[in-house]
From TrEMBL:
GO MF term list: ATP binding; ATP hydrolysis activity
Domain ATPase AAA-type core, first and last residues per copy: 238-357
InterPro entries found in the cross-reference section: ATPase_AAA_core, P-loop_NTPase
Lineage start: Eukaryota, Metazoa, Spiralia, Gnathifera, Rotifera
Pfam families attached to this UniProt entry: AAA
Name of the protein in question: ATPase AAA-type core domain-containing protein
Length: 361
């Protein structure tokens, strides 16, 4: 081993027994060490070998962990402040952007001069992120420069420092939006040919705590509803009522994502009266073991004794929820309404027919 190389190893605190230390191999031979198929113009391994005359250990930090995205600009500022790093000494790769007349950097290689090198890979601009850490955006449209991967190359004695470095990087992140969870609801429509179902997509609302949204007493009601609606070949009716804006529809959006293995048929307010039509029940018979969701149902569930012209809709709902037709079709009903519970037909509240009744306030 030459005195010059031995002095270099001692300065860098490299253990001569370290498997990556190759002091007896010439630089020409060292530079033959490379990663096959390396897609970068200059191999990061070669750069490390040329600088430190030893093969590096590797630690990788990746965006996407717990939706965290590594913000390049904040991390570079941290390196400048904590390690006195000079950004003008970095090796960068990028593409010229003719629209902005600037270089869009796609990769960056930094040497911290202490046996640690960092490679920022797959850098891109992302405007569609959440910013809970209140980081400064790179563009006026809230675009953030994100590195898909940061690979840290280091000498063995720097392992504790590198671990802390990676830990710090994950504090300098923005968040990718939580994926939208959607569900297909089948809405009742009608044309000259009769009734048909049209698919609509419903996003699941962000409800992390039902008790916080609707009160502690509602949790057991929700559990009862879910258990019944997720039971195959079941029947019965769920009544959800309260003043407009009390949260009924919001809960329905949440509820439909909790139901599995059943077709959910949505009857919009303007179609609710169709339930009294002679053609409606034969149409529903095509969808046994499904769930009928009726919104703003007050006009079709009023007490028949209080009306001069009793609605056939109530009779149909009773038959579906607990009559002979219900025994055959196993169809359940979820109805929301704004009127007082005392104004609806009492037969709907009969034990054995009623799954749950809850007033939102």
């Amino acid at each position: 081993m030459s005195d010059k190389i031995e002095t270099k190893l001692n300065e860098l605190k490299i253990n001569s027994m370290y498997v990556g230390a190759l002091p007896n191999i010439s630089m020409e031979a060292l530079l033959q060490f490379n990663i096959p198929g390396d897609r970068y113009a200059v191999s990061s391994i070669r750069l490390f070998l040329g600088k430190y005359h030893a093969l590096p250990c590797l630690l990788t930090c990746m965006s996407g962990t717990d939706r965290k995205l590594l913000h390049v600009t904040t991390i570079l500022e941290y390196l400048c402040n904590e390690f006195k790093h000079d950004l003008n000494t970095d090796l960068i790769t990028g593409n010229y952007n003719s629209q902005t007349n600037q270089m869009d950097i796609s990769a960056r290689f930094c040497d911290l001069k202490n046996g640690i090198m960092l490679e920022f890979q797959d850098i891109y601009l992302n405007p569609g992120v959440l910013n809970p850490n209140q980081l400064k955006a790179d563009k006026s449209d809230d675009g953030f420069s994100i590195a898909q991967t940061i690979t840290i190359y280091y000498l063995p004695h720097q392992m504790p420092s590198v671990s802390e470095l990676c830990k710090s990087f994950y504090k300098m992140t923005v968040l990718s939006p939580e994926p939208s969870i959607t569900f297909t609801l089948h809405m009742v429509c009608r044309n000259q040919g009769g009734y048909y179902l049209s698919c609509i997509t419903i996003k699941k609302p962000l409800i992390t705590d039902l008790a916080l949204y609707y009160g502690n007493d509602f949790v057991s009601v929700h559990e009862k509803i879910i258990k019944s609606l997720n039971t195959l070949e079941n029947k019965g009716i769920v009544l959800l009522h309260g003043i407009p804006g009390s949260g009924k529809t919001h809960y329905i959006r949440y509820l439909i994502h909790e139901i599995q293995g059943k077709t959910l048929i949505y009857v919009p307010p303007d179609m609710a009266k169709e339930i009294s039509s002679p053609d409606f029940l034969p149409f529903l018979m095509q969808y046994p073991d499904s769930i009928l969701i009726i919104e703003d149902a007050e006009n079709i569930i009023k007490d028949r004794n209080e009306s001069s012209f009793p609605s056939q809709a109530v009779a149909n709902l009773l038959n579906l929820s607990d009559g002979l037709l219900g025994d055959a079709m196993h169809q359940q009903i979820v109805a929301t309404f704004n009127c007082d519970l005392t104004t609806i037909d009492p037969a709907l509240l009969r034990k054995g027919r009623l799954i749950a009744n809850y007033e939102f306030n």
